[in-house]
């Protein structure tokens, strides 16, 4: 009888502790992109790490992304602008220079462009990496 009472107490306690542990693991990876979400399998995810104090340095990046998206609408689905206040994601990708453009898929980083660049250079890198040969013009 005493053993049954202890088991009734221990088994639910184990489930509670397992649930807490699994929740804790999830919360440490919230800012890291999950590629099991819808949309990540069809095209890569793009992050533009932005310095709020020097936004004028990023104009060529915005122009390049808009230009690329207009020419190849199926090659990029999601672009996330990441401000300097989002330190966890910047640390995860080891961002030291702003602006930095990173394109990632479920395997890893496909493109990393750092610092000031002209729009044609950014578009060229995106095209060379993301556009299938039969679509390139």
Automatic annotation (TrEMBL):
Top-level taxon: Bacteria
Protein name per Swiss-Prot or TrEMBL: Thioredoxin family protein
Source species taxonomy: Bacteria, Bacillati, Bacillota, Bacilli, Bacillales
């Amino acid at each position: 009888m005493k053993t049954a009472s202890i088991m009734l107490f221990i088994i639910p306690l184990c489930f509670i502790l397992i649930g807490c542990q699994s929740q804790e693991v999830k919360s440490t990876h919230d800012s890291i992109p999950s590629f099991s979400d819808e949309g990540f399998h069809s095209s890569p995810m793009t992050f533009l790490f932005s310095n709020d104090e020097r936004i004028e340095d990023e104009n060529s990046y915005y122009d390049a992304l808009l230009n690329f998206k207009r020419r190849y609408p199926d090659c990029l689905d999601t672009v996330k602008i990441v401000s300097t206040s989002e330190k966890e994601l910047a640390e995860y990708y080891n961002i030291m220079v702003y602006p930095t453009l990173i394109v990632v898929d479920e395997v890893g980083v496909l493109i990393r462009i750092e610092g000031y660049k002209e729009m044609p250079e950014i578009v060229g890198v995106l095209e060379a990496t993301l556009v299938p040969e039969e679509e390139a013009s």
